[in-house]
Specification:
Elements lengths: L128 H4 L25 H6 L1
């Protein structure tokens, strides 16, 4: 099995929109800020501590990717596949995760402040109520059964409907 290793050379602002296959690539610590990775194949990639702020990642396959302590602030992740990804302690401040697949993702300690989770599937994700509170979501956001939509989402739960 061969694994690609990208050195710390900066890929900042590069256009990688040719849908590169970077499956299992070791991109740990790489600067991919503002890079165009639209529809890239990054499943099982090691992106630990990678800089991906403002990166263009819609419809990208990040399933089972290691994103521990990655900086994904203001990244465009609309409709991205993060199934079983590990963005543990990742910075997702203002990230656009609309309609993203986060089933089985481990979001322990992730900063979701102002991250847009509208329509995202987090139904089997590992996260706490405290981690969800500062995020943005809507009635289409699927949360784990033990997590309630924050009040500022304006979404009624089944329990709230019974009380009314």
């Amino acid at each position: 099995m061969s694994v690609a290793k990208v050195t710390r050379n900066s890929l900042r602002e590069r256009d990688l929109s040719i849908e590169p296959n970077l499956t299992r690539a070791d991109l740990s610590g790489t600067n991919l800020s503002e890079a165009n990775l639209r529809r890239a194949e990054l499943s099982e990639a090691n992106l630990t501590e990678a800089a991906l702020s403002r990166a263009d990642l819609p419809s990208t396959d990040l399933s089972e990717a290691h994103l521990v302590k990655a900086n994904l602030s203001e990244a465009e992740l609309m409709s991205a596949d993060l199934d079983s990804a590990k963005p543990v302690r990742a910075n997702l401040f203002r990230a656009d995760l609309m309609r993203a697949n986060l089933t089985g993702a481990n979001l322990t300690g992730a900063d979701l402040t102002q991250a847009d989770l509208s329509g995202a599937d987090l139904s089997t994700a590992s996260l706490t109520q405290e981690e969800v509170e500062p995020a943005i979501g809507d009635e289409n956001t699927q949360l784990p059964p033990d997590i309630k939509p924050p009040a500022h989402w304006g979404v009624g739960t089944d329990e709230q409907a019974k009380e009314d």
